[in-house]
Amino acid sequence: VQSQINPILSGQGQIRGAVIVIHDVTELRRLEQMRTEFVANVSHELRTPLTSIKGFVETLLDGAAEDPSLRDRFLKIIQAETLRLQRLIDDLLSLAHFEGRDNRPEVTSDNASYVQKAYETIKPVILSFAQAKGIKVEVDLPETMPPLLIGENLLSQLLLNLLENAVKYTTEGRVWLQARVGPDYIHLEFGDTGCGIPEEMLPRIFERFYRVDKARSREQGGTGLGLSIVKHLLEGMGGKISVTSQLGVGTIFTVDLPRA
Ligand code: ADP
What ipTM does the predicted assembly reach? Predict the structure, then answer.
């Protein structure tokens, strides 16, 4: 706590009493600490690829460029690290965009096939990613659905982040997307037969930069920001996300989207 004491003086300047103000600053401190950690994380995540790019460019300039096979290998590393930086910056911008913002569109989406349409826009990316890993993608969406309180772009971003994760953390088997209409919400289920998430880590995966296996996420091009983007996006429109998982069996994310 933080406290402040002010004396109450009489007309003659004698102390008659005191006003004590006590502030509970627990929440403020917690937010300050989260902000400091976030800045430290961003700096670290940006510096790692930059250091690598700088090192390889210097080595090339020092003569490695004369050896064609070395040159190509180093240029490929530089390209991969540049892509990584780009993804990170894109994710940071999305996060800043959705955080603490009202994401409800002014008009409700009343086109019955909007989930299908949102899926069509990301389908090529997901299918080619899954195909490269030999994973089946099963999408089962009803022909018509009641109106939703979500814009089409937000819905595409949501589907992309969750389906990409499902494929990213699965080495064999399948990933699926199903929709079910409830009285207040439309429930989307994103499932996979992937590596699963240890139970004690489940509450933390929506935190910014939290990754169960840092090396695995990085190797697959992850930034550790995808789920926090999804969470903020949903919070801004009255939606919810929950997860169940079993190690070595798979993971299911359920997204509840409020009906209009
Ligand atoms: P990343 O860019 O690392 O994938 P996310 O914020 O999207 O970051 O996810 C955070 C972490 O949650 C991931 O690093 C991974 O450990 C875990 N995770 C997310 N989705 C899945 C999934 N479908 N299966 C297993 N682990 C997952």
Answer: 0.98
